[in-house]
Specification:
Aminopeptidase, about 35% helix, binds manganese (II) ion, about 400 residues, binds glyoxylic acid, 2 domains
């Protein structure tokens, strides 16, 4: 009896559960993420796939009967999560890929052409701040020097952490060989909204990804005693930050389609009876038009300077990462929608490795219905029947791509 998506997800249901936040915290290079990677490798090997880890830490599980890995059709997703995330964002795409390999084998559709299942590391950027770090490194969208120097909350560098995980940090960086062998990439993902619920359909093909980026606003003031410092004598960066959070919400509302979020505040030193000396606010800004994103960011920068000055503080704002709006390959999108019984075509506000790969490889995504519409939170959900439908749709898409042969290159 073959594996089902629900059965495979049940096997990892206890890995990385977060009792404090709820849901899952599977940060890159945590013990939970390592356990998931080992679990994936075991399942890949059970299927006779040859496993390799590339120099940026992505896992590739190959069906390459003739030994050649060129002109490969590739599918996959990620196993890391946001802090307190849901069970499906990432793992659904990985597990659907394993089940799709089974389905293709049952159909006799795994031919001579190479097919790979990949797992990209640090897609969420939850530990080192930059989302899609593995695919950015592979494509050269981030320099290896900058990636090596990124730090986690404990001040450990990415270089140190990957070295502890068995990778050589000096070998991080653009991997033209890995990219060049991909003829097409398709990622299955839980939908992060209610588009499919509203359409009463289980599967969609992606049209676009909203441009998005992360900026870090640091407001510095004067650390002091909460009891002995008179209100008139304070230079409190937490007050300036609080006012800034509300200002960001208000100014994003003035730009239709914009989304701006402050999801993480890091006060230094972070004591209840201490006026902070500094607060770092991580700001996520998204809009379909990258010009508007830039306008929103500049308005946030001005508001930060103004509000910091009003509180006797100073502000700086630096870009941590930016991903322009992505329109997926129209030919591939339409041919997959037709292959999948006229599947609806939907855009998304969430970022993905597929969005980073898109400028280098013909790339597509399939979304699976999420009845709650919730994502990056424990309430994210996929019904078992839809999860199996997702794997079936992926198998159909892969079979179509395998048949396209070298024509799938654009
Ligand atoms: C990742 O899911 C993102 O959209 O930030
Ligand atoms: Mn996500
Ligand atoms: Mn994801």
């Amino acid at each position: 009896m073959s594996d089902t998506v629900a059965g495979l997800l049940a096997e990892i249901a206890d890995v990385g559960r977060d009792p404090q936040r709820g849901g899952y915290s599977r940060l890159v290079h945590s013990s939970a993420e390592h356990e998931l990677r080992e679990w994936f490798v075991a399942h890949a090997e059970r299927r006779g796939l040859e496993v390799e880890v590339d120099r940026n830490g992505a896992i590739w599980a190959w069906h390459a009967p003739g030994g050649s890995r060129d002109d490969a059709v590739v599918t996959g997703s990620h196993l890391d999560s946001v802090p307190g995330g849901g069970a499906y964002d990432g793992p659904l795409g990985v597990v659907a890929a394993l089940v799709a390999v089974d389905l293709l084998r049952e159909r006799g559709a795994l031919g001579e052409r190479p097919l790979a299942v990949t797992v990209f590391p640090e897609e969420e950027g939850s530990r080192f701040g930059v989302a899609c770090l593995g695919s950015r490194l592979m494509t050269g969208a981030i320099s290896p020097d900058r990636a090596r120097a990124l730090t986690d909350v404990d001040g450990r560098t990415f270089a140190e952490v990957v070295a502890a995980g068995g990778l050589d940090p000096e070998r991080l960086g653009p991997d033209r060989e890995a990219l060049g062998r991909m003829a097409a990439f398709v990622e299955v993902h839980v939908e992060q909204g209610r588009g499919l619920v509203d359409l009463d359909r289980p599967i969609a093909v992606a049209s676009s990804i909203l441009g998005h980026g992360r900026w870090r606003v640091s407001i510095t003031g004067e650390g002091n005693h909460a009891g002995t410092t008179l209100m008139a004598d304070r230079r409190d960066p937490m007050v300036a930050t609080g006012r800034l959070v509300a200002a960001i919400r208000d100014l994003a509302r003035r730009h239709p389609g914009a989304r701006a979020t402050v999801g993480r505040l890091v006060p230094t030193p972070g004591g209840t009876n201490v006026i902070a000396s500094r607060v770092d606010a991580w700001v996520d800004v998204r809009h379909p038009d990258d010009v508007v994103t830039n306008v929103v960011v500049e308005q946030i920068r001005e508001a930060a300077s103004l509000l910091a000055a009003e509180e006797g503080c100073a502000a700086t704002m630096v870009e941590e990462s930016f991903s322009p709006t992505v329109d997926f390959d129209a030919g591939l999108r339409d041919s997959l929608a037709a292959t999948l019984g006229d599947a609806p075509v939907l855009g998304t506000g969430a970022g993905h490795d597929a969005g980073i790969l898109k400028d280098h490889v013909p790339t597509a995504m399939l979304f699976v219905r999420n009845p709650t519409g919730v994502s990056h939170a424990p309430g994210e959900h996929v019904d078992d029947a839809d999860a199996e439908e997702g794997a079936g749709a992926l198998a159909d898409a892969l079979e179509h791509l395998l048949q396209l042969g070298a024509d799938s290159r654009t």
